[in-house]
Amino acid sequence: MSRPHLLFLCHRIPYPPNKGDKIRSWHLLRYLQGHYRVHLGAFVDDPADWVHREFLAEGCESLYLRPLNPRTARLRSLQGLFDGRPLTLAYYRDRGMAAWVRGTLARRPVETVFVFSSAMAQYVPEAAPIRHRVIDFVDVDSDKWRQYAARLPWYSAWVYRREARRLEAFDKAVARAFDLSLLVSAQEADLFRGLFGDDPPAIEALVNGVDTDFFAPDPLRPSPYPPGERAVVFTGAMDYWPNVDAVVWFAREIWPRICAACPECRFHILGGRPTETVRALVDARIRVQGAVPDMRPWLQGAAVVVAPMRIARGIQNKVLEGMAMARPVVTTAKGLEGIAARPRREILVADSADGFAAAVLEALGEGGEALGRRAREYVCRQHTWEANLAALGRFLQR
Hints:
Blueprint: E1 5-10, H1 20-33, E2 37-44, H2 53-58, E3 62-67, H3 70-77, H4 80-83, H5 87-91, H6 95-107, E4 110-116, E5 132-138, H7 141-150, H8 154-177, E6 180-183, H9 186-194, E7 203-205, E8 230-235, H10 241-261, E9 265-270, H11 276-279, E10 286-290, H12 296-300, E11 304-307, H13 317-324, E12 329-331, H14 333-336, E13 348-349, H15 353-363, H16 368-382, H17 385-397
Parallel strand pairs: 1-2, 1-4, 2-3, 4-5, 5-6, 6-7, 8-9, 8-11, 9-10, 11-12, 12-13
């Protein structure tokens, strides 16, 4: 029997899986390619990602990629202030993408549309004869905009509060128009469901996994750190505000307390496109490594992995990957959302600067290695992609 056609729309090219949203979209795409003839439409906001075009095309029935310049898109998003729509929609508005979607739906017998990120829902015509419409919101982004607003001065916070209101209204309308909405955790699904009162649409949680064969300790893997150094590591895209906020808070408020007790410690910040604010943190004991070709040696060689998130929604892949590498991980309550690891058994959790510093020093102690082993055991039990994507298959069949 011929596989049915599926249109997959994604706000960012889903390869390589080197940041949170791309990790999830890549695994979803791979799963769907095993069951459908996939037509993939996505934006490319990093010129380095164009080299993966041919690789992606091999697994797709058709592929359409559009360049997206973040600076130009930010200027375009300001149109939303005048037409009443969310800025996020204007950011991703593109005539070429709209024309390709219309043409694909006209020429191909597409039965299912799978939208990754609510901004891409604007390209799905309401009147199109599609049997199944599924959207992966991933996180409740409107709540993230509210968190941003709470940390900004009044003269800019109003824009973020406005975006939170407009995006929430748009997302609710999309969820009503689609057959199924997916969120990255049970907590996110409950939060989104609560926006609808007593009559929510179909909403399910599809939890992120980790490739535990790839993210696995290897005794033959060399460490990138000099002998005798106790490395404390943060990983993540370093042009993403929640990550920037996390490392700045850690470096300024927490790190001095750790240094006083552990002179051999060094703090390493790993991730692409570090902002000026992040680069300004560099000193004798703080290193901004930027993007690295393989994160695993840096994680495996770390004494402790930290995720001091103060702004967060969904699941932090950085936490799961650190745990998968059998490293002791210290995070905040927000960093632990969506992850059922037990505090003090498989992970350490603290929200104050004093408490976080104490937790890092505890992880640097004798019990850190055992904590890391239990962390990996938890991830291998609860966060394999194979098991979690099986739920997607059940959702689509239903």
